Structure formats: C-alpha cells, structure tokens
Known about the structure:
- The protein contains six helices and eleven strands.
- It is an alpha+beta fold.
- The protein folds into two domains: 5-72, Rossmann fold; 79-174, Arc Repressor Mutant, subunit A, CATH 1.10.10.
- The protein has a four-stranded antiparallel beta sheet, covered by helices on one side. Strands 9-11-10 form a three-stranded antiparallel beta sheet.
- A hairpin with a 2-residue loop joins strand 7 and strand 8 (98-100).
Amino acid sequence: MVDITLPNGNGLEIIKQLKQNFSKAGIIIISAKNSLDDKITGLDLGADDYLAKPFDLAELNSRIKALIRRRNFEGNKTIVVNEISILPEQRIVKVNNEEVILTAKEYALLLFFISNKNRVLSKNTIAEHLWGDDSDQMDSHDFIYVHLRNLRKKLVEKGCNDYVQTIYGIGYNFKIN
C-alpha cells in the first residue's frame, strides 16, 4: 500500500521505482486525495487499485483479497486446475467442460480453495473469507461444513476428483499434486 502524500516524498515516485525495477508487488494506493487525475495517474503508473480515505477496513480487506486473487491467477481469464475450469468474469465453473451450477458461497469457497491450494485453511479463515467481519458473531462454523459438502457433491457428480482433505481439528486443505 502506498500513500500519495508522504512526509519525505511522493508515493507516485515509489510506484515508478517499483515498476522500473520490474517488481511484481501488488500496489494499492491509499490517499486522502480523491481527485480523478490522481486516480488516473496512479493507475496508469501501474497501481492495481486506488482507495480514498476515509475508508472502511472491510473494503480494504476485500480489495487486498481481490488483488491476491488476480496475482495468484496471473491475470488469466480462465483459471484451470486439472479438470476444473473457472471463468471468473462470467462466474462459470466447469468440470470436464460441463457446467456446474454453484451458489455464491460455494463459488467463493471454490475460488478461495484454489487460490490457496496445498495450504491448510482453518475454519476461522474460511469463515472470515466467506462472511467477513460478520463471521465473529456466529456461534459455530457448521455452515462451512454444509457449503463444503454441497460443493464437493456438485463437483464429484460432474466427474471431478475430490481434492478437499479434512484436517481434523484444524480445517481443510485443497490438495493438488
């Protein structure tokens, strides 16, 4: 994250330097300046996003997650993991070229697993990703199991391997060899 107005310089200069050094770092500009010219300049220099102050932390969190998703999938329009294909712009999931109809939460869960493949994800992490700050108010994480069971069933019915491993007492791992 970079602020345009810094005590000893200009955040736009930092972005220029990062891009000249071919940095692959994701850049979100956070600034009290909310003019269209500043936004255009920052984005044209190579920033990935621009957020004007004041802002809500939940929005910043969502923008960071979106940036990570874009970086993890290298900007490809189609995400392919073995027999699973996802077209994020159309919100379409296919298994073996056959469309799978998912709810919004199942779709978000699948994307989250794929962007974190081969990593153990705790139930708290999954709940926070799916429900944001509201996850703190929930008594249990049983809803994760329900969405996961439904997602697995829909994928397997289309011929998908079951990549989700339950890590007892911890969470889940989307294991891709």
